[in-house]
Each structure stands twice: as structure tokens, then as C-alpha cells.
Amino acid sequence: MSKKYNVFGIGNALVDIVTEVDDQFLIDHNIEKGLMTLVDEEHQTRVTKEIDMNNGNMKCGGSAANSIIAAAQFGGSSYYSCKVANDELGDFYRKDLKANGVHSNLDHQELESGITGKCLVMTTEDASRTMNTFLGITSNYSRSEISEEALKDSQYLYIEGYLVTSDNGQDAMKHAKKLAEENGVKTALTFSDPSMVKYFKEPMQSVVGASVDLLFCNEEEAMLYTGKDTLQEAREALKRDAKRFVITLGKNGAMIYDGDTFIDIEPYKVNAIDTNGAGDMFAGAFLYGITNGRSFADAGKLASLASSKVVTQFGPRLEWHQAQDILHHLQRN
To answer: By C-alpha distance, which of 65, 3, 71 is closest to 288?
Structure first.
């Protein structure tokens, strides 16, 4: 029996504000380069005021949201479980999600008063991305935002690692994973950011539990999580916690373990100007691929090409026509 949704995602709902800054700006505002840092509203407001927002670009986002939207852009069916406030940005978020072909709990849930979360994405000239995130109401994300009916009618549950920072987020992750396991839905999880593994290793391990069906991480996250010093050791250790996994390697492509063998995914050489969203795009394209008849190797090729395209422009995702162009390109070759 076919499922209604290819992927059901859970994660933070953040309005992404993407902008360019220089290294001195980060130094002046005591912002740690290359990482996602949680900040309070006062800090974010102060920093935002000093940025030329004419160069900014607003989109509904959050790590898992970007992946879910990517899967939809390639032609997949997606559902996103999230939390926004009954404010202007919350309304923007709901409409933008819908415009991108993604179903969500926001379509039928009454929104609470509060402040919708925002993520200031600062890109420097070397294509490095630094994020300051004010979670707002999404910090209260809980199991009550999860539509059990939609989750049960999905091929994959996709869990965003950023949720591990709160007790209610951890509970939602475990609750969703348990529901998935009880209803024959496969579970995929992304570590999201090295800081999530570095500072929340124990709760992340408790969420992963005995195993997940598919894990997404980068090289640094793989070594931090396993405590190993080399990628070779880390990938062997990951087999204990994930039946299958993807380790993205930046400009060197990716390494996929399909449950039996390791598959090397070649990179597409491009001039990267903004690495923001590359991992999210890889995960979304890969999930689309494996839920729509592609092998792990072919899905990896699609994901590699898609993520190479997204780093050549500002912002964490592609336009619809770009996603379709990528599919056509692979069909021709």
C-alpha cells in the first residue's frame, strides 16, 4: 500500500534572513564564525539593525524545512511538522511553506500568540556561513505539533538534530521515532551542526537509541559523535547506530553506506559563494531519490549535483525550475 507522503519532517520553524557580512563584522559582534549559535531576541535585534537588510533575503526555513522543501521541489510529497506564532512572520512562514508545495500542521492548527523564530544567516567572502538563531516560539515545539495521521502515512520520518537543545524537543524526537517504528515508517535523522553533537552528545545518543534507518552528518560531526580521530574509524563506528548513513565531505563529495557497502559520491566542482543549506539540500534531494525509485548511488549523485548548485548562489535552497533542470540533466546523462 502506497503512502501519501514521501517524507514527514519535524524541526524548527525559522524565518531565514540571509545576508552578507565581512569577518570584521563577526569579530566586532563577538560572533563565532562557522557555527550556529542560539541568541536572545535582544542580541539578534541589535545585530540585525547593523546589517543592510536590503541585501537580505527572507524565506521560511529551519534545517529540516529546507530539506523537506527540496524534496517537494524535485517532485516528492512532503509534510512538515513545526511551530510558529500568530504574528506577521508566522503568517509569512505558513504561506511560504504552502507556496512550496509542502503540507503542514499549520494548515489546520490554531496558532498561539508569541514571536516566530528567526535565523540570521551571515555569509562571508570565503563562502562560510555563520548563523545566529533566536528560536522564539519554536523553542516550545513539542509532540502536540506532530500529526500522527500524517506521520503514519509517510515513507520516512526526518528528524532535525537542532531539536535536541530542549527537553520538549527531545521528547518530540523520541515520540515521533517511536510512532514511526510502530507503524513501519523508516526514520532518518540529521545531526544538523557540529555544536549539536559537541554539546548535546548524550541526549542525541538517547534519541538515536538502538539505531536509525538513515543518518545524515558531515565529517566533523561523524568524528565528534563517535569519538574517533579518523574518518575511517568513525564510519565503522557509525554502523552501530545507523543501518545506513551519509557522510558529506564538502568539496570532496560524500560517502554513503547502504547497509552493505560504501559508495563514494563524486563532487561537482563549482565556485562556492555560500555554503548555507548545502547539507540540507543534500538530505532533501537524497530522500526524494530513495523514496522515488532511485538507488542509493543514483540518489547520491542527484544530491551531490543539487548541493553543488545551491552553494553557487545565496540562500539555502533552489528555485523550482532549477530542481527540474537538475533532474533533466541527470536523465540526459
So the answer is: 71
Count of alpha carbons within 13 Å of 183, Cβ hemisphere only? 20
Distance of alpha carbon 119 from alpha carbon 124, whole angstroms = 16
Give 85's DSSP letter: B
Distance in angstroms (rounded) separating the CA atoms of residues 262 and 255:
7
Residue 90: Cβ within 10 Å count: 25
Query: How far is CA 206 from its chain centroid?
Result: 20
Whole-angstrom distance, CA of residue 35 vs CA of residue 166: 18
pLDDT of the residue at 53: 64
Low-confidence residues of the chain, pLDDT below 70? 53-56
Q: What are 26-80's pLDDT values in tens digits?
A: 999 999 998 888 899 899 888 888 887 655 578 899 999 999 999 999 999 999 9
> Fold for domain 5-12+62-114+139-332?
UDP-N-acetylmuramoyl-L-alanine:D-glutamate ligase (3.40.1190)
Residue 230 has which C-alpha cell? 579518523
Q: What is the pLDDT of residue 324?
A: 94
What pLDDT, on a 0 to 100 scale, did the predictor assign at position 51? 80
Beta bridge partners of 329: none
**What angle do the packed helices 63-73 and 278-290 form, to 10 degrees?**
50
> Would you kindly state where each structural domain of the chain is located, as residue ranges?
5-12+62-114+139-332
3-state secondary structure at position 58 = strand
Identify whether the C-beta of residue 15 lies closer than 8 Å to the C-beta of residue 58: yes
pTM of the full predicted structure? 0.91
Q: Give phi and psi for 285, each to the nearest 5.
A: -65, -40
Q: What SS3 state is found at 250? A: helix
